[in-house]
Amino acid sequence: MPFPGLGNFLEPHILKLIYGMKIKVFFSWILGSLLLLSSCQSDSIDTTEKLEVDTSKIITLDSSSGYTRISVLSSPLKWTANTTADWLELKPVGDYLFIYAQPNTTGMKRRAEVQISSGRTTRRALVEQESSPTLNLNRDGSSTEVFLPALGGEVRLVPPVGGGDWQVQPSKGVDWLETSPMPQAGYILIRARNNAAKQARSAQLQILSGGKNYPVEVHQAAYEQYLLPQCLWGMDLADVEQAERARGSRLTTLPNRRSRPRIPDYTFSTTNSELHTIKYELLDYSDRMLYLATLIGSSSTINSLAYHNYLVDQGFVRITPVGNTRGAIEYVHNDRKTQLHITTKGDLGYVYCRYLAEQPGSMPTLPRLDLGIRRFGQATSRDVEAWEKTQSGIYSQDLSRAFGIPAYFLPDPLYARAYFFKKNASPQTLQEYLTLYSDYRVGAYLYGDMPYLTAEFRQLLQDEGFTFHSYNPVSQAYIYVNDAEHLGLSAGIMHIGGKHRMRVSIFPY
After folding, report:
1. Separation between Cα atoms, residue 72 and residue 58, nearest integer Å
2. Most exposed of 203, 358, 456, 497 (fewest Cβ within 10 Å)?
3. DSSP secondary-structure letter at 285?
4. In sequence order, which residues have a C-beta less than 8 Å from that of residue 45 and are 6 or more positions away?
5. d(Cα 397, Cα 409) in Å, to the nearest integer?
6. pTM
7. 3-state DSSP assignment of residue 488
8. Do the Cβ atoms of 203 and 192 come closer than 8 Å?
């Protein structure tokens, strides 16, 4: 049932304080401090210059405006990259060098050298860019078909008869194709401009060679008005890169393993001005196992009826009833094993896609829910402390400092509990609390780093009077409510103490 104020209450409080960066920043700080102390205990510091670059193979790029990346490991100095080739752009990003190439319209394969330097050490890499693809015209006089992408492209056509009498006659009104006969090189270059229209387009060419007519049909794809992330679940970054590169996207940001960001995502910029960014999250800050992808763009576009119709055309089925505005709008594509959620915030819209991972098998769960003290708006910090003693809870100064709120360690199967109090009240009374279970598998399973509630835990929630309300893709939290007890519950997973823990928040509504 709808309940006023829950969405407003969840957003600033649960999502920001419990599942937001605050906790993870504190624990990242603690972990970083421990690592720093450990490193300070080293007997000596290695000052040897190291520069490791994989230059054993020639770096090959296709003829279009593509890119590649190579790993560069430098210690202890920073590194730089340079080239004299004006058709190459070099961009260092963390421990990688991105190499971008302009389209090769020369009709010939070309090479360039890239120099990577750190201190007194220099490594050299050879970059080779292919020329345009080549097609032989059909000798039997049947039409030769050419397919080009919306971003534009080119192809070399080789007539059966060589010589200098080649002629190209395009169909009337075609101004988006350029044709350049190059008899000395042995081919005719066909180049298409960018297609910014919503429809694909075609043109017919007549190539006269050796007194014969060779027809050619050129087809160019339409501008991709709407798009989705590449839902290649379980695949590696190389597969994602290849798919994104095919539609002109560029990889612009990588996760920094040294700073360990909250979300280990790879960011691509697309060629679509309205749907401009796609983020891919892969397992454990690496380049393997995709499990979540997010499209970011204009909220007016993502919220439009046209985009929702596009999702339906792509085979997605809307789960959220039309007119229901609570939480994210959910779609499911069973064949692609994809769950999709749409949210907006200000001028930006977000399309979250995640894998519909099936539960691996039957899993144990709790005999009952631990709903805690539940005296919201009444219990003070002293009341909570007294109640925790009856539960064998042990106040932890370090844990409380890390959370920024009072926290207690608890015996198995629990791990800890932390409390939020109303700050603008006198006395400050209980507002909500977070309970952590030692083993996340009592209520959830993981695909990559994405939590899913088990069937057994969902049944337990139902037995305890809780009904499902919504799923929040930002916090990866499942929201349930209990009308009889006037309780809200948010369930998910938190990584703390070196392990994944089941997290359950209890709050009033």
Report:
1. 16
2. 358
3. G
4. none
5. 10
6. 0.74
7. strand
8. no
pLDDT band of residue 350 (cuts 50, 70, 90) is very high
Q: What is the pLDDT of residues 454-492, one digit of tens each?
A: 999 999 999 999 999 999 998 999 999 999 999 999 999
Taking a C-beta distance cutoff of 8 angstroms, is the pair 478, 493 a contact?
Answer: no
How many CA atoms, within 13 angstroms, populate the side-chain half-sphere of residue 433?
25
Name the residue among 280, 236, 288, 285 with its Cα closest to residue 260.
Answer: 285
251-262 burial, b for 16+ CB within 10 Å, e for fewer? Answer: beebbeeeeeee
Among 165, 193, 199, residue whose Cα is nearest residue 178: 193
Give dist(CA 114, CA 222) in Å, integer: 36
- Rounded CA Rg of the chain: 29
State how far the Cα of 129 lies from the Cα of 149, in Å rounded to an integer.
Answer: 19
Q: Is 172 helix (H, G, I), strand (E, B) or coil?
A: coil
Are 446 and 440 spatial neighbours (Cβ–Cβ below 8 Å)?
Answer: yes
Which H or E element spans position 25? Answer: helix 21-40
- Is 142 within 8 Å of 171 (Cβ atoms)? no
The backbone torsions φ and ψ at residue 189, rounded to the nearest 5 degrees and listed phi first, read: -90, 125
CA angle, residues 350, 249, 236, in degrees to nearest 5: 85
- Say whether 390 sits in a helix, a strand or coil: helix
End-to-end CA separation in angstroms for the chain:
12
DSSP-based three-state secondary structure for 215: strand
Mean of all residue pLDDT scores within the chain: 84
Written as six digits, the tokens of 217 are: 């049909």
CA 451 and chain centroid, separation: 16
Length of the chain: 509
